[in-house]
Amino acid sequence: MPRKPPAEPIDHHYNIPKLNRVFFAAGIVLTVIFIGMVISDYTRDWKTIQRIFMRMDARKTREAALAARQKAYGQERQKLLGDLRAARTEVASRQKELDRLNAKLRDLNPKIYLADQQAKFSKASFDAALYKYEDALANKPKAAPGARKELDKIRADLAAANERLAERKREESQLNEEIKQITAKQDEARASIEKLSADFKLSRQKFESLKQDALFRLRNSPILDMVNPSLRVQQVQLPEHFNDVNFMRIPRVDRCATCHVAADRRGFEEAKNAVFRTHPSLNLMVGSESPHPYGSFGCTPCHGGRDRASSFWSAGHSPETEKEAARWEKDFDWRFDKFNEMPILPMKYTEAGCYRCHAEETNFPDAPRLDAGMKTIEALGCWGCHRIEGLEKQGLPKVGPSLEKIASKVSSIDWATRWVMNPAAFRPNTKMPTFFYLENFVNVSGPTPPTAAQQRMNAVGRVENDAMVNSIVAYLAARSKRVAIEPAPGHGDAARGEKLLASRGCFGCHLVDPHAQRDLVGTYRQFGPNLAGVGSKTSRDWIYRWILDPKAWNPDTKMPNLRLSNEDALDIAEYLSTLKAPAAFDAMPLPKTDPATLDRMGLYFEMATKTVFDAKADLAKMDLPAKEVYVGEKLIAYYGCFACHQIPGFEDAKPIGTELTEEGSKAVHRLDFGFVHLTHTRQDWFRAKLNNTRLFDRDRARGWEEKLKMPLFRFSPKELDDVTTAVLGFQKLNASAAAKKELNSDEVAIERGRRIIKNHNCQGCHVLEGYGGSFRSLVADPSLAPPIIQGEGAKTQSDWLFAFLKAPKTGQIRPWLEVHMPTFGFSTDELNDLTRYFAALDRARYPFDAGDYVTDPKIWQAGRKTFELLRCKQCHPRNEQEMNAPGVDRASLAPNLQMASSRLRHDWINDWIRRPDEWMPGTRMPTNFPVGDGGQRTSPIAGMFDAPAFAKDRQEYAQILGGDAEAKAFLSNPDAITKALRDYVWSVGVNGGTAPVGASPAPAPPTSRAARPAGGARPREAGAP
Amino acid sequence: MNPISLLKSAINFLSAPQYLVTAMLIGLLVGIRWKFLWSKKGGLMLLALIAGGIGLSYLDPNFNAVATLPDNVPIVGMIFLVGFFFWFAMNQAYENDRRTAAGLPTIEAEDSSQKVFSWPDLVYVELICLVLVTAVMIIWSIYLKAPLEEPANPTDSPNPAKAPWYFLGLQEMLVYFDPWLAGVVLPSLIIVGLMAIPYIDTNPKGNGYFTFRERKWEITMFLTGFIVLWCTLIVLGTFLRGPNWNFFGPYEFWDVNKLVPLNNINLSEIIWIRLFQKPLPNFWLWREIFGLAIVGFYLFALPLLLSQTLLRRFFEKMGMVRYMIGVSLLLTMMALPIKMYLRWIFNLKYIVNIPEFSFNI
Q1: What is the pTM of this model?
Q2: What is the band of A8 on the pLDDT scale with cuts at 50, 70, 90?
Q3: Helical packing angle, B40-57 and B73-101, nearest 10°
Q4: Is-contact B225 B189, C-beta < 8 A?
Q5: Cβ within 8 Å, pair A339-B120
């Protein structure tokens, strides 16, 4: 039974028409909000960016298209059109013939089709029959003969069908050939026109594709854009690079190119907005030809940041300055993201991204800031306290001088005390950092005025520092070896000493400038200490003994032996001892040790191993000096002085600082910001820490033993940026081994060599790999400066180089030089590494072996003749007699050619003669073969060929070379001439230049050769033709 | 110091857990009987006080930083929602009590004398609510992004590491109880207890209508548990617990370096060492005998004691089984504030501490 409808009017609790209105309004609200949701979901910054870039690209393409159109529709087109018309008329005149051929071709077409089909069908039947036969052979031997017969029949059919087809095809190609003959010109003209306008068509096509037309809008409209949008997230998968999510490693997927649309495209270098710009070093990064192509390195492995992000903020962009942060907040809705553990490195620290893969390398020429940072870290000895794995492997020598004999070295212990108090007061550019009287001891409140309590703390801190300085110096003095220094013989000439200091090469590593600021990167001359004031530091006698033989005082010193004569050394010592410290330094009041403070420190150290009663009892047994020595030893361990200095009693001490190997990936919350308000990022903390190493103790009330102890390095703003970059770069490598730079054996050799060069500051004097040579700028005449070392591996024989580096002799190669190549006392390993390094750098043969080198007597003769003609003898002596002949000014000589065959590689000699100006800019060697108009080296002798004055020489050359034409060819070819000269020069060393070097065995092992007595040929080579 | 920062310091001081919980307890017990508070006027004043206080607090940068975090916004909402429904229930209850006293039917009785169809009177209104709530949720989700962080990293956990907001009460209990109690036993008992309520409390009074007078004891007990021991702890955990789970006043900067000493001691130490001046016995049973005795008394003897004294009325009305279950649950609930006060007053760590079995109370 159907239910009865309720009685009207139905009673309602609510006013239904009102509810209807509310429902309507709510529906409208929801609809609007829903549309808003779709819009907000659809609107992405990257889409806008891609749209804008498309317009930019379209503009550019349009310009290119317009330019191409001008070319396509220029005069050339008119000419080609004319050609085409002419060709057409020609074709028209033979139209009948053409028609006939075309008709034939048309008739042929179905025939070919049929023949082709027949052939294919026959082939199919053949395959089937073949199978049938094989099957019969295997399984039904009786049926085999029948199958065979059938197969043979079909085989014949197939051959016939193929032949028919070939026949038809031949007919076709003949016809085509004939047609082509008639229309050849016309086709050619057409093709030329096509070619002329190809660029235009291509760019027009591209321009069309960049139009944001109705189709574009449809494809990219909400919802429909799921099908095939043209605005899309651009991503690259990087299987070699990972995100470490702690329990697993997830391959990176970089989406940076979604916004950075032009990063890998040339032509947008100048774009105003950074997001549209081409990567600034496409040859090194991103570019497909670069060592770090986008496809396998992406962006975030180097730059950091969140790889999968597709919005400005979530990608982890980091502003460089507060101002930039404010601008980003306003323009890009950027905000600091404390959860992003690896945000993008701020632009100025970008080079930090290089280190984690390239830690095995010594120099970073493509990353100047990182290079400077690493240089600074190496030079200042940061690695002495902070373990840095990459540097540890390189085995660096301690950066400070040995303190084993300090008491005998310094003029007075007070000097050492003042130095420890404030090294910069003595030498503003010193590498020695300041340890005492820093903020957290004497100014705990920083820039804000101290409260009464803080004033008391400051006073206590100062007294503590006084006691510390005295204790450390007391220990050093007490444990120092005492060595009697033999007095220098008489007095020298200080004025001459000053000149010698400049000319002997000391300035390759040293400055004498009381006002110099520290610069460890721009110049190589701050490798050794600034000599200003050295006369206050130590005695004349000590300086004299030291510069005569530094290794005699300290076998581990980096200072090489310059092989100074006693007289020179005395003069230099005389001069140096006149250099006195600034008056302010000597006026510094010496600290007084407060016994109570010293007791407090002593007690603290004693209690490390003893109970408080034993410690007090032991301390009571010591008198004040003994306490100072005791506390001094502990403080040296506490402050890590031994990290840079050789100190007796600390030979095996372990580094005291935080390990920095992965400091750049350290979680930010593990960095103690104390009461200092800074943005919580690694770079802000590192930079602030380096700038003021005691900063994070500000406003703290800690005891001396709990205070921060890293010394203050007085970094300049540039140094701060450099070092911060390097420290940020000490990161964990989240990549597979394949992604990392793997050095091959040559590269390993090169890096080893570079390390030795860096450790010995070779670049203080020499330009090596394009860097260094600071000393050269002090010498007016470049030919008097230490040579630029370029192509040394290609130039010299490894064995010679080994012997030379081991024990260079003054005036051995360039007797005119005043500057001395010092004796560094390289170890055998180092010498081997260095020679290998030079060879590897030039991809030269290593070791060198000239065994296969044979000269042609004719060429040799021509070389000898040319040697005379060019008067090489004027500068180059060929033996000791010529070198020491009366009336010869040794200072104006060129290297003795007798050395050539033992020192040089033969294939380098001719190259050198041909272009000495390229090998060594500023060399005295004349450029005999200037670069001609064509950019090729030319021979000036060829120009003289027809001159009457040359007639005799011409005849002689013709005689040697067997004809006038040959002589002319020879003389106009720089290559031939230099090779001939080379052959002669080579023979000078081997047999005194008396005969060409024949097929006789190669010169004997060079170790003996380097020490070979001057003069005549060796018996073994005397028999050469 | 200017008056505003003085006020802020005072609020910072008073919002420490011991004062906050005490204030809420007293406030609830007193406020629930203060009729004026549940009138419209009182409600508006309460709203003005809370909204004004919170609104003005947003001017403080430290408060703002915490209260505007996307995960904390719902808790601000929760304060108002819980507050409103609390007020509404009490308002209706007092109104009904007035009517009953005057011999009139309750609001609900009056309302249900007349029947209407579920469509449109119920479903239509629900539909409108659905539409509006959907709209609000969409806007919320667009403008307050989900507070997602980096993938979890055990070596780099966030500080403070907070549970989801609805578990913050439990997390707060961890301060006072051993994890197996605060994390396992108590949460299970909360669920079991809530499920058991209909079977324990068979009193038909208050069914289908609001009332306070007829159910003073039950309502007060429930609200103590819900408002003070649950919602207050959530608010506390959200806004007042900072790095290292240290307490921070609402206007205090969340300084990671803040250190608070946690010098708590066990009952056994108090008794054996401080009172008897004897070494702690090695055998755990002997050592913890006093603690075990107290706990045993609390859980087993106290219900019986109460049945003859304070709760005699309930014991007689409910019968043995219901009474015992109900009172055990009640005592378990009250164990939380009791332990809190023991901690705050005596620095008591554990009443029973048996590390031999990882058993602590």
Answers
A1: 0.84
A2: low
A3: 170
A4: no
A5: no
